[in-house]
Design goal:
15% of the residues lie in helices and 42% in strands. With 705 residues, it is an alpha+beta fold. Among the domains are: 392-462, Roll (Ubiquitin-like (UB roll)), CATH 3.10.20.870; 467-704, PPM-type phosphatase domain (Phosphatase 2c, domain 1). The strands form 13 sheets. Strands 38, 39, 40, 41, 42, 47 and 48 form a 7-stranded antiparallel β-sheet that branches. A hairpin with a 3-residue loop joins strand 19 and strand 20 (221-227). Residues 372-462 form the PFU domain.
């Protein structure tokens, strides 16, 4: 009979994100020691399979990103825990001081000469420390202060591991694997080992006593590597575990257990090299560990530590299981696996032919429930529900997709557009509702054809959701971008990122209205205009504005950031924002809304009107690029600001699709917790969608080097 993992124990450690974790045994007692997003070391004891929280110790002011347990080393001849943080500090603490509830942690060594995020910490066989950093280096460090440095080129070093020959295998943010000699000489490079950042590396011996290397990446893939007879590394097997990020993994009972952004653990059989089970967690899994008895421990984003067992005598009580399954069922999630699937294509009952290792969506009363087959529970388990936004209805009770106000003579009339209808059919409905004639009908058809893509009207089934993710590195910063058309049936956002010859970086987010064309035009044209105007944003906004007079009844917001040397220069029109994500976030932009008294007064003083919070009843933002039909009423002067940057600063640029459901403080906190800009952008984008944002969502996150 197939056996599966079941919940054994769980504990919440004061609601803090558990980002890294180690299992250890000390003085005949078992412990889990974790690091969280607030700089706390978390100490939990394990007795008879159950957790007991001992204490939290604050040891730094930012996220603890990596951790290693040393039974003994040249740094300290007794057991110690080594932590690395987001600011590049490496600290050693005696285990005896950590597990004693009555005393403060004893720091026994410190490495403080580096100042970039420590992504990974490992120990070598001779007691040294290997750590990887966002400053593009992997280092082997000795207590004397001497170190061997391995440069990863222009991308951040993410992870490394020493093999049985003393070679160092490292993974990089560009998806490459590299092999180095023990004295830091590059032996081999494997380009595109993963499509995205290599997240972690493990080594193990197979049944033939051959050393096998495993790697996981942000591409959701688990790869297996072997050494050839010529001592070169080559790929042996590969399995796509998920299309989301995977963050950690361990080897347990001839299986690989993988923690993921999907809020589950994936169980990959090492023999078959395929996913054979999904273990429901209910939260993003940042860290995984294995106990000597084969129990799995997961450190989670919701501040919990959970263990799972194959042993019947260690499983949680029936009451605890019932409560846990009820908790999972209530979660609101929306995994990327099912974005863009029409609701009509989703069944009401689970498909028994759905293989293990896959989510199975079913329709429920309010949207979609996500089901998995789980070996432990031997049944379908609900791991959350995705709430689907109900389609809106017009005053006549007809469903519609979008609406806008148009002027017919002296009247402002609201038009309700259905994407399954053609432009002609939409115009006929509108004209019938308002007793309009053929001339008005022809003008409305022309308007619809000009402002909607051809495949948006009358061809609903052929539309595909727009989702964009990309990242990169410039001289002064790293960046990550995540976009989705979300609940909308069209995408009108556009973004750009450019590095000029002098290293200055330009970023922009443009949120279009009336058509996608103005946003695309601004994103394509503004970088070159800024360069031509020698980085003068005020001149550049005036020039791009003059070029966009061609857009009469459509336009775009603009939120742009220029990073030059150690300064941030910002300009904006409309309600897209730039936020400097410090402990107290700084909004560098101003929301230009027609309902704002100062903006409304300007419009009225120049002969315009503000009706229902919109300029002439048409436009909610009071400043924009384009919209030249409103040119004489609207203020087209951008808001400009600047700020001196410091190392480690983070910048968020996003449209109102994010800020409709996120405060600056919430978004800034999530950015500051993230380990890389792309994962931060993706998390904000996806969470905004989960929170019910009904707009296009574009999020750009920048980490200053």
């Amino acid at each position: 009979m197939e056996e599966g993992y079941l919940l054994s124990s769980q504990i919440n450690v004061l609601g803090l994100q558990v980002r890294t974790m180690k299992y250890l045994e000390y003085n005949d007692q078992s412990y889990v020691i974790g690091g969280d997003s607030k700089g706390n070391i978390i100490i939990v004891s394990i007795k008879a399979g159950k957790f007991k929280h001992i204490k939290n110790c604050n040891v730094c002011s930012n996220t603890i990103t990596s951790m290693e347990f040393l039974a003994s080393s040249e740094f300290y001849d007794k057991p110690s825990i080594v932590i690395g943080d987001r600011n590049g500090l490496v600290q050693f603490f005696s285990v005896s001081s950590l597990v004693n509830k009555e005393i403060t942690p004893k720091k026994v060594f410190e490495i403080s000469q580096f100042n970039d995020c420590i992504c990974n910490l490992k120990s070598t066989k001779d007691g040294k420390i290997i750590f990887d950093s966002w400053d593009l280096k992997t280092r082997i460090y000795s207590k004397s202060g001497k170190y061997i440095e391995m440069s990863q080129g222009v991308y951040a070093a993410w992870c490394s591991k020493e093999d049985s020959k003393g070679q160092i295998i490292s993974g990089c943010a560009d998806g490459s694997l590299k092999i180095w000699s023990s004295d830091g000489k590059l032996i081999q490079t494997i380009e595109h080992a993963h499509k995205e950042s290599v997240r972690d590396i493990l080594l193990y011996k197979n049944s033939k006593n051959e050393e096998i290397i495993l790697s996981i990446g942000n591409d959701g893939v688990l790869n297996e590597w072997v050494f050839t007879s010529h001592d070169t590394l080559q790929q042996n097997r590969s399995v796509t575990v998920t299309i989301s990020y995977i963050y950690s993994f361990v080897i347990a009972n001839n299986n690989v257990i993988i923690g993921s952004e999907d809020k589950v653990l994936y169980n990959v059989d090492l023999i078959q090299f395929e996913v054979i089970d999904i273990i429901p967690i209910g939260s993003v899994v940042w860290a995984t560990q294995i106990m000597p008895n084969g129990n799995i421990i997961a450190g989670c984003d919701d501040g919990s530590i959970r263990s799972f067992t194959l042993h019947a005598d260690e499983k949680a009580s029936d009451q605890e299981h019932e409560a846990y399954l009820h908790y999972l069922k209530k979660l609101e999630i929306n995994p990327s696996h099912f974005r863009g699937i029409p609701l009509d294509d989703i069944p009401y009952q689970p498909d028994d032919n759905c293989p293990r290792g896959y989510f199975c969506p079913i329709r429920c009363k309010k949207g979609i429930a996500l089901m998995i087959q789980n070996r432990g529970y031997k049944k379908w388990v609900c791991v959350g529900k995705s709430i689907i936004e109900q389609r809106k209805k017009d005053p006549h009770g007809r469903e519609y997709d979008t609406s806008f106000t148009i002027l017919i003579g002296d009247d402002s009339l609201t038009m309700y557009v259905r994407f399954e209808d053609t432009a002609e059919e939409n115009a006929d409905t509108f004209c019938k509702d308002h007793n309009l004639g053929p001339r008005d009908r022809n003008e409305i058809i022309e308007f619809l054809n000009e402002n909607f893509k051809v495949d948006q009207l009358g061809k609903t089934q052929k539309r595909k959701a727009v989702t964009v993710e990309r990242s990169g590195s410039f001289k002064y910063c790293y960046y990550g971008l995540a976009e989705t058309q979300g609940m909308r049936s069209y995408m009108q956002d556009a973004c750009c990122e450019v590095e000029y010859e002098n290293g200055t970086a330009f970023f922009g987010v443009f949120d279009g209205h009336g058509s996608e064309v103005p946003a695309i035009y601004a994103a394509e044209q503004m970088p070159s205009i800024v360069e031509k105007n020698e980085m003068d944003l005020e001149k550049s906004f005036k020039e791009i504005d003059s070029k966009m007079i061609q857009f009469e009844i459509c336009g775009t917001t603009a939120a742009v950031a220029l990073i030059k040397d150690d300064f941030l220069f910002v300009g904006n029109l409309g309600d897209s924002r730039v936020v400097l994500c410090r402990e107290n976030p700084i909004r560098m932009t101003v929301d230009h809304k027609a309902e704002d008294p100062e903006e409304a007064n300007y419009i009225r003083e120049h002969g315009g009107t503000v009706t229902q919070g919109k300029v002439s009843g048409l436009l909610a933002v009071s400043r924009s690029l384009g919209d030249s039909i409103l040119l004489k009423y609207a203020n087209h002067n951008p808001h400009l600001s600047q700020m001196k940057l410091i190392t480690g600063d983070r910048i968020l640029i996003a449209c109102d699709g994010l800020f409709d459901v996120y405060s600056d403080e919430e978004a800034s906190n999530d950015v500051r917790k993230a380990t890389d800009p792309l994962s931060a952008a993706i998390q904000l984008r996806d969470d905004a969608l989960f929170r019910g944002s009904g707009d296009n969502i574009s999020v750009m996150v920048i980490f200053i080097k």
